[in-house]
Write a structure and sequence with these properties.
This protein is α/β, with parallel strands linked by helices and 462 residues long. The protein has 2 domains: 6-80 and 344-460, Aspartate Aminotransferase, domain 1 (Alpha-Beta Complex); 88-337, Aspartate Aminotransferase, domain 2, CATH 3.40.640.10. Helices cover 38% and strands 13% of the residues. The protein is built from 18 helices and 14 strands. It has helices at 13-16, 36-39, 49-52, 58-68, 88-98, 113-127, 142-154, 170-176, 207-212, 236-249, 275-278, 287-290, 305-319, 324-337, 342-364, 394-397, 401-413, 444-454; strands at 75-76, 137-140, 160-165, 181-188, 198-199, 204-205, 218-224, 252-256, 281-286, 299-302, 367-370, 376-380, 415-416, 435-439. The strands form 3 sheets. It has an 8-stranded mixed β-sheet with strand order 2-10-9-8-7-3-4-6, sandwiched between helices. A hairpin with a 5-residue loop joins strand 11 (367-370) and strand 12 (376-380). The radius of gyration is 22 Å and the shape is globular. The relative contact order is 0.17. Bound molecules: pyridoxal-5'-phosphate. Pyridoxal-5'-phosphate is lined by residues 80, 142-144, 168, 224, 228, 256, 258, 286, 288, 294, 299. One of its GO terms (cellular component) is mitochondrion. This is Kynurenine aminotransferas-like protein.
């Protein structure tokens, strides 16, 4: 049995294995603080409070562990990056854009007109009205910077923003940067998720708890559908209820719909439910998720002019404008995608990967939460019994069970995945500590290799 940790000495994890100061209570989870950054600085120079106490995030823990695994190459189903290239028509568009003088220079801060127009054309049919490409769309450096711009635009020091757990972890620091306070409302999985396959749609948001979390400082709520990591597509009725509560209390809705081309059940956009809800909604999109190019960093927000103009102002000050040639390529992608049948194909292909990969859980006698959208699946590991004498390094030993399960899979089977308690506050981590998140946006042979390796779990299943 491995499980000793000497190889960590040369992969940087000892630095991460420092004692954990427990300064903040409502943070995502207890983390390990970096101490190295300050060491190289002059005596009087201190990092800001925001980043000086930066805790190690799940991505670097898992990536460093994956690099240190004795089983190489690792099958990496952790982070949601694609294991294959964008379609040829999008790649060719990017290559073509690089040859054009104007595409290698600054774009207008709000984004290239061609991309704004392509998005307005693509999204107007969903909204059943003509979206104004000049006033109602802003292009950002990935969805992430778009959301940061939205928080910068509307959140003042001390304002509250409601986030449903589990959450995409970037929301938290993005809300805190302008001084916002995150208020968490947990979603809960079906109680018997360890004994039967469930649907991601069964994760429940308690609307009364959501409304009860609203105070006179609440400015925004962040919604994510299709959801990462659950894979839930919020139903029309749920969105209607959320929307009506926001209208009643006059709260902005930041609707993160980056997986909006990957849904396997009917998908509703909250901004389409009523003019009053639309007036409060900023919808977030990501070219990286749509066209398999997360590294291009092209995203956007769509919403009423009265909201978009402030997001655009924040975006201008944060990064001025976004990558020009890749905006152009994304525009061409949208112009051609529909007629090439790309969106349908992309859904079909991802659903195929999902279903094929999930056969492994039935084979092993484990259960999973069948996603309604996106490319993540949560599998339930309650029946997996970790060897009692297994030695975990402190960075994992001090964390919920899912971190230990993820560590074990990396070190013993050579498969990386993400422990989802990272997306809960510590007091709610128990909700997800038996689950692990796997990204299936990988080549088919990689998914087959993952399944083969996961068969090694059989002897640990009770
Ligand atoms: C729910 C969610 N929102 C936003 C993003 C970020 O998108 P982008 O890469 O366009 O910044 C991600 C990426 O994983 C995500 O999962």
């Amino acid at each position: 049995m491995r499980g000793k940790v000497p190889h960590l000495l040369h992969c940087g994890l000892v630095r991460a294995a420092l004692p954990i100061p427990r300064a903040c209570t409502r943070r995502i989870a207890p983390r390990v603080y970096f101490s190295t950054r300050t060491r190289d600085m002059g005596r009087g120079i201190k990092p800001s409070r925001r980043f000086g106490a930066q805790q190690q995030d799940v991505w670097s823990i898992i990536n460093e562990a994956a690099a240190a695994s004795p089983i190489q190459p690792i099958v990496n189903m952790g982070q949601g990056f694609f294991g294959y290239n964008p379609p040829a028509f999008v790649i060719d568009a990017a290559k073509g854009a690089l040859d054009r003088v104007d595409c290698n220079q600054y774009s207008p801060t709000k984004g290239r007109p061609r991309l704004r127009k392509a998005l307005a054309n693509a999204y107007s049919p969903f909204y059943q009205r003509a979206i104004d490409a000049d006033k109602e769309v802003v292009i950002t450096t990935g969805a992430n910077e778009g959301m940061l711009s939205a928080f910068m635009a509307f959140v003042e020091e001390g304002d509250e923003v409601i986030v449903f757990e589990p959450f995409f972890d970037q929301y938290i620091s993005n809300i805190e940067m302008p001084g916002g306070k995150v208020v968490y409302v947990p979603m809960t999985p079906p109680a018997d998720g360890a004994s039967r396959n469930t649907s991601a749609g069964e994760w429940n948001l308690d609307m009364a708890a959501f409304e009860a979390a609203i105070t006179d400082r609440t400015r925004m709520v962040v919604l994510n559908t299709p959801h990462n990591p659950i894979g839930k597509v919020f139903s029309r009725a749920e969105l209607q209820a959320i929307g009506e509560i926001c209208v009643k209390h006059d709260i902005l809705i930041l609707s993160d719909e980056v997986y909006d081309q990957l849904y396997y059940v009917p998908f509703t956009r909250i901004a389409t439910l009523s003019p009053k809800i639309a007036a409060l909604t900023l919808t977030v999109g990501s070219g990286g998720k749509v066209f398999y190019c997360t590294g291009w960093r092209v995203g956007w927000l769509i919403g009423p002019e009265e909201l978009i103009k402030y997001v655009a102002a924040a975006h201008t000050r944060i990064c001025y404008s976004s990558v020009s040639p890749l905006q152009e390529a994304t525009a061409i992608g949208f112009e051609e995608a529909e007629s090439r049948g790309f969106f349908e194909e992309s859904k079909r292909e991802m659903k195929g990967k999902m279903d094929k990969f999930n056969e492994i859980w039935d084979e092993l006698g484990l259960t999973y939460s069948d996603p309604e959208g996106g490319y993540f699946v949560l599998a339930n590991f309650a029946r997996v019994q970790l060897p009692p004498d297994y030695v975990f390094p402190p960075i994992v030993a001090n964390r919920p069970r899912d971190f230990k399960l993820a560590w074990f899979l990396i070190m013993e089977l050579g498969v990386a995945c993400i422990p989802p308690t990272e997306f809960f506050v510590p007091e709610n981590a128990h909700i997800a500590e038996d689950w692990l998140r796997f990204a299936v946006c990988k080549e088919d042979h990689i998914l087959e290799e993952a399944k083969e390796r996961l068969r090694g779990l059989k002897k640990y299943i009770k």
